[in-house]
Design brief:
6-stranded mixed β-sheet; Rossmann fold; alpha/beta; single chain; 10 helices
Length: 259
C-alpha cells in the first residue's frame, strides 16, 4: 500500500504517530528521515535547554500571582538527570526560603518545575494557570505564591507543600518528551502534601499542550479533582476522574442555541 493511499491519508488525520511513511527502495523517504531527525533534536533540546523563568514570572504577575524561585538539591542539569532522588528534595537554601513564609498556608499551592521538558513548561504553564485561577477563586480557595522550581521532580512539591502547610499541592512539570510531543506539560495533584507521599496518592492530568489536551479542558479536570479531593479528603488511585460526566450534564442542560 502506498503512503499516498487514501486509507493512510485518512488515518494520519487522527494521530501524530509515524504511520504509512512509504519507502524509497528499501529505505525510508528522505523527507521522513529528516523529519525523524528533527523530532529527535527537539526532544533532546526539551530535556537539556535551561528554562528562562522570567517570562513566566511576568505572566503570573499579570494574573495577580506572585512567584518564588526555588531549586532542588540537584546542583546542575547533569546531576539532575543522573540523580532523580536529588530532584525530589529541596536545596537547603530553598528550604530556608520557604520556612520564612510561615503565614502562607494556602488551600492550593502551585509548583511549576522544569522537569524533563523546559519547552513544555514555557509553552503551557501560564496558559493553564490562567484557565484554572478563575475556577479556584470562584470556589473560594486561597492560592499561595507560585513556586518556580529548577531541576525539580514531582515529589518536590510534597516537601514544599509540607513546609507551607498547604492543603493541596498542584505540581505542573515538563513531561518526558516523545518524538511527536516535545512540549507536553503534566499536572500532579496531591492532598495534604508531605515528604514520603507515594505516587499512588496523586492524581495526574497529562499531555497538556496544543495538539494534546487543551488548557481549558485540563483546568476543568484539575478543578473537578481538587473539589472532590477537598470534599472526600483523598487523592490518588481511590479518586477517579469522573469530570467528563459533569461536562456531559452541562452540555445536555444547555439551551439548544448555545450548543
Amino acid at each position: 500500500m502506498s503512503s499516498n493511499d487514501p486509507a493512510w491519508l485518512n488515518l494520519r488525520r487522527f494521530t501524530d504517530a509515524r504511520i504509512g511513511l512509504g519507502r524509497a527502495g528499501s529505505a525510508l523517504p528522505i523527507k521522513e528521515v529528516l523529519s525523524f531527525s528533527m523530532a529527535h533534536a527537539q526532544a533532546r533540546d526539551a530535556v537539556t535547554t535551561p528554562i528562562d523563568w522570567q517570562p513566566l514570572a511576568d505572566e503570573l504577575r499579570a494574573l495577580g500571582l506572585e512567584s518564588i524561585r526555588i531549586a532542588s538539591a540537584a546542583p546542575d542539569r547533569d546531576t539532575y538527570l543522573r540523580r532523580p532522588d536529588l530532584g525530589r528534595r529541596l536545596s537547603p537554601a530553598s528550604r530556608q526560603l520557604l520556612a520564612a513564609e510561615t503565614g502562607t498556608k494556602p488551600d492550593l499551592l502551585i509548583v511549576v518545575a522544569d522537569g524533563l521538558s523546559s519547552t513544555g513548561v514555557s509553552a503551557n504553564a501560564a496558559g493553564l494557570i490562567a484557565e484554572l485561577l478563575p475556577l479556584a477563586r470562584k470556589s473560594g480557595w486561597s492560592v499561595g505564591p507560585v513556586l518556580l522550581a529548577s531541576q525539580g521532580r514531582v515529589a518536590l512539591g510534597d516537601e514544599a507543600g509540607e513546609i507551607l502547610n498547604a492543603h493541596a499541592v498542584l505540581m505542573l512539570i515538563g513531561e518526558r518528551p516523545g518524538l511527536s510531543s516535545p512540549d507536553s506539560l503534566g499536572a500532579y495533584l496531591t492532598l495534604d502534601p508531605r515528604v514520603g507521599r507515594k505516587d499512588g496518592e496523586r492524581n495526574c492530568v497529562s499531555n497538556i499542550r496544543v495538539g494534546g489536551l487543551p488548557a481549558a479542558e485540563a483546568a476543568f479536570k484539575i478543578h473537578w479533582l481538587l473539589r472532590e479531593a477537598f470534599r472526600r479528603g483523598l487523592t490518588g488511585v481511590t479518586l477517579k476522574d469522573e469530570s467528563v460526566y459533569q461536562l456531559e450534564d452541562a452540555t445536555a442542560q444547555a439551551p439548544a442555541l448555545e450548543r
